[in-house]
Amino acid sequence: MGNSSSCRAISLRDVVTSLSQRESSPSCLSPSSKGGSKRGSKSGSKGDKKRLVFNFTDVSELDDILAEIDLALNDVLDNKVIERKTSQALETNITDVGTMLNSVSSKCQDAKSQMDSAKLIASASMQVLCDLLDSAKNLSWAGAALAMVAYTLRRLDRVSQNNITCHTLLRSMSSLAKHIRALVPELKEHDQKLRDATFLIARGVTLCSVHWRRGVLSKFGFADTTMGDLDQLCQEIRDVYPDLNLAVAVSIHKNQKILMRQMSHPLSPFTPAYPSNKVGLDIRVEEVIKKLTLESSDVRAVVLHGLPGIGKSTLGDAVYAKLNFPGRTHCRIEVGENPSAEKICSLQASILERLSGDKVKLGYPLEGRQRLEKYLEECRESLFIYIDNVLNPNDLQDLLPEKLVLPPKSRILVTSRVANLCSELDDRGVVSELYEVEELDFAQAKQMFCLLVFEDEDPPPVKKVQVSQVLKACGGMPLALELVGKYLRRQRSRQNWDTAWTHTLVSLQSSDPLAGTKDMSSYLGKLESMYEQLSKPLQRAFLDIITYYLDLPWEMVNHVIGEDQLLALQELAFVKKSSLDVDGIDRVHVHDLLVSLGRKLESGLRISSSEEDQLPTLLKSDDRDKKPIEGLCLRNCMEELSVESLDSLSASLRILILEQNVAGRCRKVPAHLQLFITQGSMPFQHIEKLTELAVLKLCEVDMDFDFVQFPDQLKSLIINDCQTLKELPEWFIELRILSSLDLSFCKNLQRLPDDFGRLTALQSLELQDCKTLEELPVDLINLTALQRLNLGGCENLKSLPAKFGQLSMLQRLKLWRCGRLASLPSDFGELQSLQELNMSLCESLERLPENFGHLFNLQSLELRFCRMLKALPEDFVHLSALQRLDLTGCEMLVTLPEGIGQLTGLWELHLDECESLKKLPEGFGGLVALHTLSLAGCCSLSALSEDFGSLESLLMLKLTDCSSLTSLPESFKQLVALKSLDVAGASDELITSVGELVSSSCNINIVPEPSSGRWQVSDMTWQTYLQEPNGPRWLMIDGYDFDDHDFQS
């Protein structure tokens, strides 16, 4: 393949040249353009026909646009959505774009009026986009759509006088593009559907661009676009969803396929995606799954063991992502190096929360082990626990109970570089087996490296020798190959590519080859050689991350380090974005081998100490001024830190984390401080003088906020558990670039400022457990950039503001345990970007708004224990993107909407303890993607739908304690995919009918009530059925597994 980047640069430069020719054209310039680059507007008519007019700005700004488009197209190529031959065709197409725009530009020179010129260019530009897409036949429509939206959405921080409609449209286009991407595998025979939807996005990009002060089309002068045009396009985007979903349903029916989500949990924030383009991974995954012997009824574990950087976690993540866990509750945690007692407690709480669904707060590891032991003993469901990156057997001892009493068929998967973990698990009563993760052989290493660098399995002839030299130096170590490959790939578009190869080889060859070695210093030597290729700012950012920012929220670290540097480290594989948090928060993750490297390279400029008896010696040393300290982190140190010590560091300090008391107030202010986290004390009197501060976190700090002021440049502010905070001071709304605000656990916070909506840069707002907060300000709806809003635990919150639906970018909304919230605003359905909604324990909620079904992007909805909720609105069946629905404990819910079978994307449905639910509606069998259905405790349920057997994807079904259900429909025998059926506590009649209708591949769980004495071993029905060829493979009664040998004997 040729160098696509250079081809793109040349052709796009042609575009810039063609546009720059217009700078001297009087017909295309606004009269006010000489005065600057401000955007103006004129009114053409009233109402929706108001015409927006924009001035032509400096053509030099197109360099930024050029970089944006190049980056977007590179994203498409990086994601392998274009085949090699198509990539070459795409380069030609982009060259054609330059030619076409040149032609358009020359026509504009002859245009009679400004408006004619603008109309001509707007129309022709959209045609260019469509022609480009249409001519690249094998181009993934999803990738193209995302690329088109990408550069437009990246301009959000430069909007000038934008309007809500345009924001809504852009978010809708982005969501539609992602929806297209999800449907691509199922719609190969409906390519026209994808083209039509993608062209709709092309049209949206064209129309929206004139609304951007620095948008591409705003360079063309005036644009005749009305609000009516945008509203109409929004409606067309809504209308295209049912059409696409219908095409998927037709495709599934035609090909007799079941729509699954790559056998993984698509919404779970702690389930990693299946790694893409990993050489030799699929075979290893199958080998590990075979060792897990999932069908066996015993409890067992598999330990993935291997050298550091060999790919153990990648393999573990792939196994975890591929398994669909029928009948098993599952969780994943990562231990890491030298976990503190606090982290062990956090991991234990994560296990309990992810397995049981209950939020847990632990004080010490012993308490966590006791809670885990009790839960595991009482648990009736099979479990799958994935513990990643255990570096010390003692960590497993601290984490898990001494005896692991797990339910039958439970599995544990562990990754570790320690071989004797199997004996540790055996001592806890779990049969374990070792799986050795081997390094890549030469052919696999070559394939991996070449795909990373050249996007091809073979190198160009001119690079074959150098590739062989790299492979010899790195051996089959995937981590080293990835670092080298991504570095060289990043250098491809630069003029010094050959020089980069030379320098990299010299650096790699300066240490011993890795092939066949197990020496840790050799591994670190290779990684250090790649660290040396980083620029000085990137090296400093990397060491900051290793010392202070591991596992912190990605957004917070981004504010301190800077987006460009963090993304560069991510692109070079030195850091990764991890979403293993229960709340789905992206966090900064670094491979443990790179962590070891960073700690080895740290030169003493950064101090980090945790749970020590005394302060670090360097803080008390008389010669500390000779080495300027840039970062200080003290956690729970027994010795008190003096303000004099802090004052001595003020000139160089950039990072300060204090989770302990500091006596007194500092006299000096660390003017270069970028991040400040403190718990329990405030050593600085004049916080506003911290003029470079980007992130501030105050925990349990009692202070009078009326007499302090924060620096205006703050991007992230966290004030947790502050009992003196009753309302925010007036100056608060001057924090105009604040993008993240967390006021959780401020239990005395009564109100937010009336003009709170002026914080227009705010993207995340956390108000969890602000128990005295009764209402939100009306102008909250002006937070048009808000993406995440957490009001969970605001027990006295009575309502949401009117016009709440104008928060067009809101993606996640948490309203759980808002006990006084009785209804939602009437325009709630206009939240077009909303993906996750949690309203569990809203015990006063009686109904959902009538337009609730307009939430076309809603994927997860939790309404657990909304005890007053009696019915769902009729248009609920239009939630075409819904994948997970939890109505557990809605005890007054009598029925589900007719037509619920239209939710063809729904894969998990919980109706536990819906005590008033009497039957499932006809058409329920239309839920073709449903693989988990729980009806436990539905004591009034007397019948399943007649088409119940049409649930072709159903893997797990719970009918526990459905005492009124006496029979199953005849179609039940069609559930060929069913793997787990729980009928514990069901009627005798139902259990009898189960044996006649259930597939032989299904595992049946019957755990009778202790007092009933039903279904003992002597029961002839099950004795006979178990011995028949089509009988179930195993039967569990009171926790004991019986097979036909037991019955015969």
From TrEMBL:
A GO term, aspect molecular function: ADP binding
Domain R13L1/DRL21-like LRR repeat region: residue ranges: 706-770
Residue ranges with Low complexity bias: 18-35
Residues that span the membrane, as ranges: none
Keyword Zinc-finger among UniProt keywords: no
Superkingdom as given in the UniProt entry: Eukaryota
Domain spans labelled NB-ARC: 284-457
Glycoprotein as UniProt keyword: no
Span list, region Disordered: 17-47
Keywords attached to this entry: Leucine-rich repeat, Repeat
GO biological-process terms attached to the record: defense response
Domain Disease resistance R13L4/SHOC-2-like LRR: from-to ranges: 850-988
Record-linked SUPFAM superfamilies: L domain-like, P-loop containing nucleoside triphosphate hydrolases
Pfam families for this protein: LRR_14, LRR_R13L1-DRL21, NB-ARC
The protein's name: NB-ARC domain-containing protein
Organism for this UniProt entry: Ceratodon purpureus (Fire moss)
